[in-house]
Amino acid sequence: MPSAGSTQKRKQFFSFNKYIWNALDWLYPPSCCSCGRSGVIFCEECQSSIMKIKGNLCISCGIHLRKKQTKCVDCLENPPIFREMRSWAVYEGSIREAIHSLKYKQNIALGHILAKQLINVINQSNWKVDLIIPIPLSDSHYKQRGYNQSALISRFISKSINIHHSNDAVVRVRDTKTQISLDIKERFTNLDGAFWGNPAKLNTRSVLIIDDVITTGATMQSCAKEVIDAGAKQVYCLSVARAVLRTSKQK
Ligand SMILES: [Zn+2]
Ligand SMILES: [Zn+2]
Question: Whose atoms come closest to the Cα of 41: which ligand?
């Protein structure tokens, strides 16, 4: 439990931030990142159209299962290195627009809105986490963008639920080609040796990795492997959205 002093400091931090955001909203009126409606950065209608990922999910990787099973064939055949992987929504429609806006249009206030949804997912889980980290960006992407969109989300989660955060417990040590045109096997090869986990920060920790989107899961799995190799006890993976495109036989 946080102390009364730390709770007070967090309250002050959030009210100060609120003041700044209100001032910016007055100077530059926002518009919905998905439909363009003015006055809000992500309107209620667009948010309510988001398709959440729920129902009967594989207890390991979180994909939908048609039958009343607890684990998908892939996880049974090749148990993943992470304990659980979950995503809040299907990567399509307005959530796709929101993530695109957060990533490429400097609409960084969306990070807080999306983080709140992930806090709900965490609160409904039975995860035991003592360190939260974002999927790191490559140096070239960071220089180009000026921020890591996953870190905006993970830092807000960390402050809200009072769990330690690290930006550099895992770093990208190698630039990788864009994954878009690669098949699943090529994606894993492309990520070989891309991350490095710092044992001084990860040893014996129970780690939650945050990303904006999971496509095939190759990035999360490569990062999770580094976290475990660096001595972490267990690792959980969570993203805002997930592209639901793999069949149960794909990894
Ligand atoms: Zn809208
Ligand atoms: Zn699975």
Answer: 1
